[in-house]
Amino acid sequence: MKNYSIAIDGPAGAGKSSVSKEIAKRLGIVYIDTGAMYRAFGLYYLKNNLSLDEEEVVNMNVSNVVIELKNEDEETKIYLNQEDVTTEIRTEGASVGASKVSVYPKVREKMVKLQQEIACKSSVIMDGRDIGTVVLPNATLKIYLTASVDERAKRRYKEQLLKGMDVKLEDIKKDIEERDYRDMHRETSPLKQADDAILLDTSNLTQEEVIEEILKLCRERDIK
Question: Is 223 part of a structural domain of the chain?
Fold first, then answer.
């Protein structure tokens, strides 16, 4: 098969990134974490003490944000204006920043263009909120990955405890609920399941079971 694309959409904490990363390894294709890209974008404003709540301020600085993805030591590193922010973007602050900055049309326009340029060069698996609906509307395979709010909060809570972060489960659950609302109700490219996407609820599945299910769908479409 010539170059193909796999679009993985879904709400925060559904396991999109970890699953997509592993599938990319098994299929030998490029993994594009669009959520990380938006986190890096939001991080620029946080690091420079710029308001994320004022569209005019955000728009004035869009051209100053340069985001690059680089494969280093079998890992995709995220660079913000030539600074490696791969670890820094995994904080809750960066997560909230990503959700806020992603509602602005000028930001999404710039990011979608960048993501499409990357996807044109090779076979990719890309995860995010609007991949199957906006970024890759003609993707070879589209999947909408989801899980209950409680399950997503528990997963993120465990992840952050392992990183030594001081977090509360209820706070994480509240953040996820608020982010779901923002993502699903924004005017530009809201989070929704593409008409031709396959719904996969991971609430009661292990990560390996989710990966195997997606690989099965890939084989059915002759993606190998």
Answer: no
Domain with 201 in it: what CATH number?
Answer: 3.40.50.300
Please tell me the pTM assigned to this model. 0.81
Residue range of the domain that includes 93: 5-218
Per-residue pLDDT of the chain (224 residues; tens, 9 = 90+): 588 999 999 998 899 989 999 999 999 888 998 889 999 999 999 999 999 999 999 999 999 999 988 877 777 889 999 999 999 998 888 888 998 998 899 999 999 999 998 899 889 999 988 999 999 999 999 999 999 999 999 999 998 899 888 889 999 999 999 989 988 988 888 899 999 999 999 999 999 999 999 999 999 998 87
Question: Would 118 be classed as within a structural domain?
Answer: yes
- The full 3-state SS of the chain, as one line of letters, equals CCCCEEEEECCCCCCHHHHHHHHHHHHCCEEEEHHHHHHHHHHHHHHCCCCCCCHHHHHHHHHHCCEEEEEECCEEEEEECCEECCCHHHCHHHHHHHHHHCCCHHHHHHHHHHHHHHHHHCCEEEEECCHHHHHCCCCCEEEEEECCHHHHHHHHHHHHHHCCCCCCHHHHHHHHHHHHHHHHHCCCCCCCCCCCCEEEECCCCCHHHHHHHHHHHHHHCCCC
Please give the tally of structural domains in the chain: 1
60 within some domain:
yes
